[in-house]
Structure formats: structure tokens, C-alpha cells
Amino acid sequence: MTMPLSLQHIRQYKIILVEDSDSERCLLLNLLDSMGFTAQGFSNAQGAIKHLQNEQVDMVITDWMMPQISGIELCKTIKSMPCSPYTILLTGNNQNAHMIEGIESGADDFIAKPFHSGVLKVRILAGLRIIEMQQKLASHNKTLNQMLVKEQDYLNCLRQDLSLAAQLQRALLPKNSDLTEGWRVTTEFKPAQDLAGDLFQCFNIDEQHIGFYLLDVSGHGTAASMLSFTLAHHLSSHQKVWQSLDLALITNKLNREFDDPEQCGRFATLLIGIANTKTGAVELINAGHPSPIIVSPQGAKFVDDSYAESQLPIGIDKQHHYQSQHFTMEKEEQLLLYSDGIYECRHSKFGSFGLTKLLKNVSDARALPAEQLLHYLSYSTELWQEKQAQDDISLMLISTTNTLSHCGSQM
């Protein structure tokens, strides 16, 4: 609802009157003053233009017929100014053609002479209401722009924080490097967003054992990544619990310490193991994770369920007691750990990628060097999901040495 303009509001607006006839200018100025308006008069357009170039004016009332610069030309000049005032054109001709010409020249309103004083007043009041709405709109736009600038600054800071967090997350991942007794770890990591819910690691525990894990926190983005950071801290190679070589102890402790502060049902799948690099004996706990794959010169196969039986994911039941299984890796074999993002991705036409296709791709590319094999698997998945990342993709390939000695296969 538009409120009527008060006398105080009317007085605050700056109005100029341009009329070459002294008598008519004086008459109009007195009329405007009697109506409560404050106006300044000019006898020609040149004086008005000079004034407009130096002063902010809200409204211009101008006659059409004037020497040198007409009212039409004045309107065109006014509308070319950065902050043009509201303009009312006065004319003794009320033909439609003149009205159209006046409005097209830049005039906001058109009043034909002779006119009733009340008509002039309401036209001015209507113009002032438009000016007031424009000012309010400009003020709102200014406030909105200030908010947008602040929002943009915040988003820029957030992007920088996410970038730093992503760098930190990548710093927690293992580098492609040699391990004890000639074993080697090779990795490939492609987060679906800046931050991922996946984290994995492989490291030397002592001169004869390596520890490794791959965890995948449910969900995506910042919340999932923060929880994965916390879990990775509990599984850090610096934690003394690894020295016990007790995999069940490590996993049960992690499960009890798992926290879901948002109470939104988060959990984490985990594949964790300890390998004896001299004998090839591997102890493994699978907490809701897909079975790892053994890659050998003869082909690729999933680790048998009896050696990698899936148990409850971490965070489902704090009282659950995890138990480990054992198997032995042979010479020249490799152990592939992966997140579900690589086989659960979907093609718009052909559906899910699937574990069967993943195993076939691994087998087909088994002769490739480790880095090329992981890149091939990652790229195949990228093509399948039509280069639209759907989930985090984590791959870790642990390679044995050629000189394993299976003396009792002791851990």
C-alpha cells in the first residue's frame, strides 16, 4: 500500500521549472509554492542543464516551446545523464502525435496547456511517489549488493578453506612408495567433491609388518570428510595400538570410539589388515566393506568369504566384537582395496557398473604396471558414469615381493 506524501516529504524534493516566459514562470512558481512544493525557476534550457550537471535534482518541469534548446531536446539531454530526474513536459498541443513524441524523447509525463492546477498537483505527486519508490528500490538494491559482496567474500573464504582441507586430506593419503621387505603400495584417489568421505593408508609397523586400511564414511561432502579425519586419527600409524599387532583390538577400539554428533545414522565401512612382509601372511577384518581382490599373473579373484567375511560397519553397534580372518599372499600377487564408488556408479542407459565388470577389468589389465592398472580402472569408471562424478573413488594396490618365504605363514 502506497502511503500519501506528507508536507515534510514534499518539501525535501528538489524541483526545477524551465519556462522561457517570465510571466508564466512566475505564475507557475507561485502555484507550486501554494501547493507546498519548493521549486527553482530557469528561463532557458541552457541554465537548467548547467544546474543539473552540478546539483542533484528530483524533478524537472519544462515547457516544450523554447528558443535555442526546446523542451524535447532538454528531455533527451536529461535522459542521457547518469541519474536523470523525473521529467514532466508542458505543451500547448494535446495531439496524440505530440504526446508520443514527448514521451519518446524521454519525458516521464505529459500535460497539455491550459491545465487545471489540481491536475498539475496530482501529476507531480504521482511523479514524487515514483521517485520515492525508485529511491527505496535503489536503497534495497544497495543493501542487497552489500549482502551479495559479503556472501561472495564468505564463499571465497569457504572455497579457500575447502581447498586447504582437501590438501590436508590428500596429505593423509599414502604416497606411491616402497615398504619393508620390498613390498610396495600404489594408490589412486578421485573425490566426488572437494572433500571426500574416503580415507586410506598403508605403512610400516616394524621391520616385518605393514598395516593398511581403507575406510568409507557414509554420505558425502564436509560432514563425511570430517568424520573420516577423526577415524583416520584413531588409525594413525603413530597410534601405539598398532605395535600390538592385534587387529581385533584396533578395530573394536575404533568402533567404541566412533561418534555420530549429528545423530543422523552415519557409519563407516572399513577394510583393515596387517601383513607379514616376509611370509605373505595377511590378517584381515572386513567391516561392511566390499571384498578385496587378489591380482596375480594368472588372473584376478575376490578374497574368499571365509578369509574376508563381511561384518557390521563401524558405528552400527558399539558392543559388536570384530574377529579377524587370515590368508596368505603368494609371490607376485597384489592385494587391491577399493571403495564402493568404483562399482556402484551408474550409466544412464546401462545401469550399475557392478563388481563383475570390475573384476573382469582388473583381470584384463593385470599385466599393466601398478600405476597404469589403477589409472585404467579409474578411467573406466569415469567413462561409465559419463564423466559426472557420483561418489568418491579410492584404490590402493599392495604388491608383494618375489622372495616370500612361507615358513609356517606366521604373522
What does this structure look like?
The chain has 411 residues and is an alpha/beta fold. It folds into 2 domains: 7-140, Rossmann fold; 172-399, PPM-type phosphatase domain (Phosphatase 2c, domain 1, 4-Layer Sandwich). The protein has helices spanning 7-12, 22-34, 45-54, 71-79, 96-105, 117-171, 221-234, 247-257, 355-364, 370-384; strands spanning 15-18, 39-42, 59-63, 86-91, 109-112, 177-178, 184-190, 198-204, 209-217, 268-276, 281-287, 293-296, 299-302, 310-311, 325-328, 334-338, 346-347, 351-352, 393-399. A 6-stranded antiparallel beta sheet has the order 6-7-19-16-12-13, covered by helices on one side. Strands 8, 9, 10, 11, 14 and 15 form a 6-stranded mixed beta sheet that branches. The chain has a 5-stranded parallel beta sheet with strand order 2-1-3-4-5, sandwiched between helices. It is rod-shaped and about 120 Å long. The N and C termini lie far apart (83 Å).
